[in-house]
Amino acid sequence: MLYILIQSNGGSFLSQMPLLAVLIAIFYFFFIRPSAKKQKEQDTFLTSLEKGQEVVTSSGIIGKINKITDKDITLQVSDKNFIRVTKGSISNELTNAFQKKDDKK
Description:
Elements: H1 2-7, H2 13-47, E1 54-56, E2 62-68, E3 72-76, E4 82-86, H3 92-104
Antiparallel strand pairs: 1-2, 2-3, 3-4
């Protein structure tokens, strides 16, 4: 589309501004806004984490939160096994999907 804007000789740049504005609006509403909303939900989720909550990491590890610090979380993955992961690796999407799967059982 930008190629068409550059190649047209018939009109001035001002006559093409509405088309450019529509393209920018489409880009904003379909790409930027959903991405920002998803990031805000992830940040809210990370601040609401509590000890004892069962979560899923972005790599698919399922565990129960044992300890939370500023930068990392210790997960209990079985009776005597604990792993330390970064706070950002806990996935809101995967945790919600896992909890919905458990609720159906």
